[in-house]
Amino acid sequence: MTEHIVSAFEDELTGLGTKIAQMGGMAEEALALAIEALEKHDTALASRVIDGDTRIDRLEREIEEQAIVMIARRQPMALALREIMVAIRIAAVLERAGDLAKNIAKRAFALDAETYPKSIIAGLTRMGRLALRQLKDVLDAYAQRDAVKALEVWGADQEVDDMYNSMFRELLTYMMEDPRNIGICTHLLFGAKNLERIGDHATNIAENVYYLVHGEPIEAERPKGDLTSVTPIDYLETDE
């Protein structure tokens, strides 16, 4: 009887991990499509991302509800409890990443009829692909329970921040050179900030993977290279 209970609980934990993997795949796809929509001014693609966000939200609720039932029914301890708590945390982070991908996709509508230097959108696309790679890598680290790989993602957030700082300065220059650029540059700046936040969320997941494996948090201070926090832009709402 005890073996049966243990086996059933292990199946529940596996099912929880499967849902996290599914949700992670949906968040990755949403971000990839949002970047493409912005790059190509593809409003149809942007609409797909926006419409698909409800599925990510729904799955996050399912994971949370399943985790709560498991805690109440099984009263897990030690590693099993960490498995469940980390799943809840990662699901919440992925839900936020999905929201940010949706916000990036919305910029495709605002920029549809606009013209701007190709270097700007090229830089934004590079930043987006880097953030997407970070998200993919950290979800792989979670699936493999690989704390070393999680630490690599955690330490690489500086690169995303550096690209954001560069994009921020370039867009600010365009706005100062010609006030007519302010509207379009603001949309692009919001898009860049959303990508920077996705990089932060990947770092957050990495911290949770490390905690899951070792049972303790990363002791070092989180790497951070965003130098724009003293400017008004970070006081604006970037999550819609």
What does this structure look like?
α1 runs antiparallel to α2 and α6 (157-177) packs antiparallel against α7. The protein is mostly helical and 240 residues long. It has a single domain (2-235), classed as Methane Monooxygenase Hydroxylase, Chain G, domain 1, CATH 1.20.58.220. The protein is elongated, with a radius of gyration of 19 Å. The model is unreliable at 230-240 (pLDDT under 50). It is built from seven helices and no strands.
- Backbone CA Rg: 19 Å
CATH fourth-tier homologous superfamily = Phosphate transport system protein phou homolog 2, domain 2
- Low-pLDDT residue intervals, each spanning 5 or more residues: 230-240
How much of the sequence is in beta strands?
Answer: under 5%
Number of helices: 7
Number of DSSP strand runs? 0
Sheet having the most strands: none
